[in-house]
């Protein structure tokens, strides 16, 4: 039974007191009630997320309060009324509707019945895939008839000589299959017109008929492939694709679901199309499961947009704020392992390196690459390797050359053609400037912006958690 239908059946069978427990308000955030089922849905969707500590129900409650405050901030900012939001949310809702607005039990029954009927019809014969080249004479004159017969004979001869069937079909056919190279699809024996059977009965895969007349057109048919029907599971996707293309069948599937949701009352609506329309327009209320999913996506979109404005974009564009945050916190930031700040150089000779070292002395790091290039203006003399970040940071354990030459650990093989290997730079255990950071200063700044934002939201919006109702929630 559909989960939504099971929920409704259970709700109808419950006493008023027990039904009230399911619909109890567990919290109110910014003037909006949060039902117990909504909060349980949130925990079900997020309860498996790994965190540094084990989360309890009260932790989830605090997280949901923060979440709903952010959503309310997005609503107050008018994000939910923008055309971009409306379009994206509608597209998602429309996509999900058929998961809940269609009687899938009815479709499955119909699909299996269609398969069983096909088995009876096809039997041991299986299915054949035909292709055709066919055309209708332009008029009833003898001259046109002779022209068409000559054309058909020439096409047949070309095919016999190895010409490509799809190409000739595309060029000469004037039937509905021409645009797909003559491919007519799959046929069971009962689908093949009796008048054609004599021309194809002796064909084998890959063979084609001589030109023949079928009512008013000249035809050449090719027996392309043969296959057995296969199991239901092997054909299920194709059957469903066919069912989804049948408007009357899908209309019935939606009407069936609407009748289930309404408990047979049809919401006192007599017109079938109106019953379905009412269901789709009110799906959030007629199916609580869909209501939770729809709300989750709706609020998730709002959360993303408002967080982008208040935190993520600001951390990327507020360079002054980021620099100030770094300067304030730089003494607290330390690398997990020592780092080398500089470059690794591979030189033809020791003399080349000595010249390079002298040229780089007292020059800013950002100019080093250009200086290296100048040493290679006539012929290659030196190659350089820089680490991550703008100022060339190598973490210990990250590079064999640095580990050996700087930290005295391990060994390395000289680069082919450049036997002299040296480093220029120094070891650091914390970033000297913002560009040195390998420990996520931007992420730390985002966290600070998030905390400040939440403080502002908690000052602006009120919330209340009903702990008695909260006790009804348990983590799986």
Task: Give keywords.
alpha+beta, 11 strands, four-stranded antiparallel sheet, single chain, disordered N terminus, 476 residues
Question: What would you say this structure looks like, in words?
Answer:
This protein has 20 helices and eleven strands. The chain has 476 residues and is α+β, with helices and mostly antiparallel strands. It has a four-stranded antiparallel β-sheet, covered by helices on one side. Strands 7, 8, 9 and 10 form a four-stranded antiparallel β-sheet that branches. Helix 4 crosses helix 14. The longest helix is centred in the middle third of the chain and has 30 residues, at 288-317. A hairpin with a 2-residue loop joins strand 5 and strand 6. It has helices at 3-13, 16-22, 36-46, 57-76, 83-101, 104-122, 142-160, 165-172, 197-200, 232-244, 247-261, 272-281, 283-286, 288-317, 319-329, 350-360, 368-375, 400-405, 441-460, 467-470; strands at 25-29, 32-35, 127-135, 183-187, 212-214, 217-227, 339-347, 382-386, 393-395, 420-428, 463-465. The protein is 53% helix and 14% strand. It is flat and about 100 Å long. Mean pLDDT is 88; it is low at 1-21.
